[in-house]
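Quiz preparation item.
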């Protein structure tokens, strides 16, 4: 153990968390003089104290000892979903009965982070985003913390309410969203202290739902592109996700970010809008040639390592350095076993990030991601269906895969 390295890291983490030496000392049940001694490299914590310090700051013990990056940070939209189950969408002016009502985490950041934490508790998972100083903000922060997600980088604002969506969900998994943008419109790059980031991978989503990140930038194209550039400059891998939108600036907003993304993960509709190449043939079958061309376009835009596209039928991965193109069909889950699909895209993304983090082959990565997404189908909300890595891998042996 190097006292100077460990002391410097503790000081940096403390400041990034907005704690004084006295406050940190109180949390660790030591004196503030002890904290000062550690931070100045004049001594270091006892081995038995390291787990508590690591847990407080959302890093690993190894990181405290060596400064080696570890874990995944998920940044972006934080939403409270109120899922309302209905049997049919009513005609204009007509009524439809709500048969069930649940409140759950929603948005890229909570969904993906909670899924990752449930897959593997040993990986430090943290979230950066913004919530309102209200009941919904407390609710969603509590859910993340309960699942072992570090929320120390989340900004709490009194300017606007926490973002929320009313999700109207049919039994077959189809759903419609009514969304209030709220605190997600306040979340900005300056809310993330880059010097406090100790992760290996930072994933951010959704582009087109983060107004401050989507804003134009004279040099980089968008504030998101500048942010990704700055994150990558610190030796952290970058990953992006987007949201389906008919925004006229769709391409103008997304393409600049691709230049500074190591990984781009999105669905077939979202990616197809970048090239105007339809992902489906007239008979409804997947147009694999168009999807591959779209992925190659994304690589040409600058995505450095992997482009991943997913749809209900299958997942695709383009390994950019080698040009290798891989297809893996989705698990074939019987319709009668499906309770919902809210958050399935985030579950797929979590599976991809887990595979990337653990250096899975592209085939294994897509197989794992499809099984992770399938877990989501067994729950009516975004995260309750997620299982551990071992259970996910077993699930993939129970069901066959779809034909494409």
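Solution:
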């Amino acid at each position: 153990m190097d006292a100077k390295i460990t002391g410097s890291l503790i000081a940096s983490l403390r400041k990034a968390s907005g704690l004084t030496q006295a406050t940190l000392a109180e949390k660790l049940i030591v004196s503030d003089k002890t904290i000062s001694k550690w931070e100045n490299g004049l001594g270091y914590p006892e081995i038995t104290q390291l787990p508590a310090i690591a847990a407080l700051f959302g890093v690993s013990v190894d990181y405290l000892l060596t400064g080696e990056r570890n874990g995944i940070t998920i940044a972006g939209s934080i939403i409270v979903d109120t899922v309302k189950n209905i049997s049919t969408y009513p005609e204009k002016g007509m009524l439809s009965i709500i048969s069930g009502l649940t409140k759950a985490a929603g948005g890229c950041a909570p969904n993906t982070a909670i899924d990752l934490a449930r897959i593997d508790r040993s990986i430090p998972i943290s979230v950066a985003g913004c919530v309102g100083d209200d009941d919904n903000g407390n609710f969603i922060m509590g859910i993340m913390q309960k699942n072992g997600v570090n929320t120390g980088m989340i900004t709490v604002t009194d300017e606007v309410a926490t973002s929320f969506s009313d999700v109207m969900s049919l039994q077959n998994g189809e759903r419609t969203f009514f969304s209030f943008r709220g605190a997600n419109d306040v979340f900005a790059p300056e809310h993330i202290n880059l010097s406090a980031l100790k992760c290996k991978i930072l994933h951010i989503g959704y582009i087109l739902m983060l107004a401050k990140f989507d804003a134009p930038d004279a040099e980089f194209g968008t504030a998101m592109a500048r942010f990704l550039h700055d994150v990558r400059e610190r030796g952290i891998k970058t990953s992006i996700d987007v949201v389906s939108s008919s925004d006229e600036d769709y391409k103008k907003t997304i393409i600049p970010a691709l230049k500074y993304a190591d990984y781009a993960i999105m669905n077939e509709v979202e990616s197809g809008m970048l090239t105007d190449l339809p992902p489906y043939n007239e008979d409804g079958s997947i147009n694999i040639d168009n999807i591959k061309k779209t992925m190659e376009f994304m690589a040409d835009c600058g995505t450095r390592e992997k482009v991943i596209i997913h749809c209900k039928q299958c997942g695709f991965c383009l390994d950019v350095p080698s040009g290798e193109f891989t297809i893996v069909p989705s698990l074939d889950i019987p319709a009668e076993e499906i309770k919902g699909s809210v958050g399935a895209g985030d579950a797929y993304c979590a599976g991809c990030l887990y595979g990337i983090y653990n250096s899975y082959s592209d085939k294994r990565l897509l197989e794992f991601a499809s099984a992770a997404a399938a877990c989501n189908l067994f729950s009516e909300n975004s995260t309750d269906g997620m299982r551990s890595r071992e259970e996910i891998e077993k699930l993939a042996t129970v069901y066959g895969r779809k034909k494409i």
